[in-house]
Predict the structure of ArsR family transcriptional regulator.
Amino acid sequence: METLSLFKALSDQTRLTCVLLIHQQQELCVCELMAALDESQPKVSRHLALLKKQKILLDRRQEQWVFYRLNPELPHWYRTMLSDIITQQSEIIQAPFSHLEAMGNRPQRQVKCC
């Protein structure tokens, strides 16, 4: 992963907010991100596809939902930077996090056995 592409991926407010929310929540589905961002499914999906292409996010299917999480192969400094942004600049995700918390009928994650 190139450092420049990792930073370019965060140069858009929607992508930055998605990555920060996913980092904070561990995993989110498209519908949760739509509620948090108050954006349409095509727009959110387009940004998620770019983040996936840059290998920042990984996805998994569970029934009708697609869940996104940070790529575990991201450099440690990148994850630290995301944590620092959440801590130092919490206003970036304050409103989206409130929307997410207010969302009803959030999809249940499958509990992995073993």
Notes: The first strand starts at residue 28 and ends at 29.
